[in-house]
Amino acid sequence: xxxKIDPRSSSQLPILSLHRLGCTSYFAGHNVHWIQxxxxxNRPEVxxxxxxxxxxxxxxxxLTVRKQGDNLTRFRNHDPARLVAVVERTGVDVLINDQYxxxxxxxxxxxxxxxxxxxxxxxxxxxxxxxxxxxxxxARIRTHGGF
Length: 147
Description:
This protein is an alpha+beta fold and 147 residues long. It has helices at residues 34-42, 44-47, 80-90, 134-144; strands spanning 2-4, 51-59, 62-67, 72-76, 93-97, 102-105, 108-111, 113-114.
């Protein structure tokens, strides 16, 4: 696997950290939402749709994965330094579920977004206020992809 990580994207947090620098987004490519992780792990009909591959390169936030049959596909992830650290410890074999945009490496989950050529953009870091109203919950889902 080749790698090229932008030093500005490197996380100084431990590898088991749930959030990169406090990112609060659940849109594809940012954080894995626990419901999606559970669906891909515990629902046979969902996990049956997952496919195996190998990470070939990580270049900034873009990762290239080889599917079976030597087809290549590219994804984006907001924390490539953490992804590389996990891959270096567990190997390049991955399991990807396109429905929930989850890439599994060993016991770790990463949210990925199919690469369209556009960067993911900055990670929001605002914290969820306590006692949200129904309207605030709906607004947070629209701006953060979940809560």
